[in-house]
Design brief:
Shape: elongated
Strand order of the largest sheet: 5-10-9-6-8-7
Number of strands: 10
Number of helices: 6
Helix content: 25-40%
Order of helices and strands: EHEEHEEHEHEEEHEH
Distance between the termini: 53 Å
Mean pLDDT: 91
Largest sheet: 6 strands, parallel
Low-confidence stretches: none
Radius of gyration: 19 Å
């Protein structure tokens, strides 16, 4: 009741009901709600700023410039955005910082996948990349991949509870990387099966793509997701 102003970060993860509850708990308070609809990947989050009645009279200010990723990485993220755009928001733009084109590589079987991950990780470490994330759709698949990687690589499984240890080669489920950033990112399997052509998969893939500061590699077994292939 004593709150005069509320600041809500990651506001896209709040439901319309939670916005209404905050409005009820602090009826006289002003609110600053900051969020990105393309990062609404949690259950119950909003996908349109018009959804919560509590924000119906809000003044909107849109921030469209990303300072994290290179032009080449953001170009790939923009393609995913264009496939399933969030309503009422502009596609992202980035500051003029160029880098390598993201690598797109097909593999066949776990051993082939592990060899590709190891080669990329060692190459990037030699180039000074201190934090390398290997991101997959499922933790079970990542555990199998971890077993196939050589112990000399020093790879480890990263959970959302251990986000402070962002160094070396880390394997993480896609749903646990929102809010984090890494020097380099390997998406372990971006097949059509792993990322079907639907809005939620598009938002999840968008989040994964935009975690990378400098390097990005896309691995896939079978057909590449239509979110990137355009088919």
């Amino acid at each position: 009741p004593d709150a005069r102003h509320l600041v809500i970060d990651e506001a896209q993860d709040f439901s319309a009901l939670e916005f209404a509850l905050l409005n009820r708990l602090a009826p006289g308070a002003t609110v600053t709600a900051v969020g990105d609809l393309m990062q609404s990947i949690g259950a119950g989050g909003i996908t349109d700023w018009e959804e919560p009645p509590a924000l119906s009279k809000a003044a909107r200010r849109e921030l469209t410039v990303s300072y994290r990723s290179t032009v080449e990485i953001m170009r790939m993220a923009e393609a995913v955005f264009a496939r399933h755009p969030a309503p009422g928001i502009a596609p992202p733009k980035t500051v003029l910082r160029h880098g390598d084109e993201p690598a797109v590589m097909e593999y066949k079987g776990r051993a082939s996948q592990a060899k590709a991950v190891e080669r990329l990780a060692r190459e990037w470490q030699e180039q000074g990349m201190a934090s390398i994330a290997v991101i997959g759709r499922s933790e079970a698949g990542l555990r199998e991949l971890l077993k196939a990687l050589p112990k000399s690589l020093g790879a480890k499984l990263l959970s959302a509870d251990e986000a402070e240890a962002l160094s070396g080669v880390m394997l993480s489920p896609a749903g646990a990387v929102k809010g984090l950033e890494f020097d380099a990112v390997i998406l372990a399997d971006v097949s059509a099966e792993a990322y079907p052509d639907d809005p939620r998969s598009a938002r999840l893939l968008y989040v994964c793509l935009t975690r990378a500061l400098h390097k990005l590699a896309i691995l896939h077994e079978g057909a590449l997701t239509p979110l990137l292939s355009g088919r």
